[in-house]
């Protein structure tokens, strides 16, 4: 089965990841997020239990 032979695919995989880490990753990580995280006020609401009519 030729797909089990790692010889041609390892070079393709290695070159793809090398290209990604050297070329594309710095470009992608240089973008700034437009939506900065905001501290939300985590208030807990006072809930009342549901009264079931058949109990």
Automatic annotation (TrEMBL):
Subcellular location(s) per record: Mitochondrion membrane
Membrane topology: Single-pass membrane protein
TM regions (residue ranges): 6-24
Keyword Transcription among UniProt keywords: no
GO aspect biological process, one term: proton motive force-driven ATP synthesis
Keyword Membrane included in the entry's annotation: yes
Keyword set, alphabetical order: ATP synthesis, CF(0), Hydrogen ion transport, Ion transport, Membrane, Mitochondrion, Transmembrane, Transmembrane helix, Transport
Pfam families with a match to the protein in the record: ATP-synt_8
GO MF annotations, alphabetized: proton transmembrane transporter activity
InterPro entries: ATP8_metazoa, ATPase_protein_8
Family according to the record: Belongs to the ATPase protein 8 family.
Family annotation (PANTHER family): ATP SYNTHASE PROTEIN 8
Protein name per Swiss-Prot or TrEMBL: ATP synthase complex subunit 8
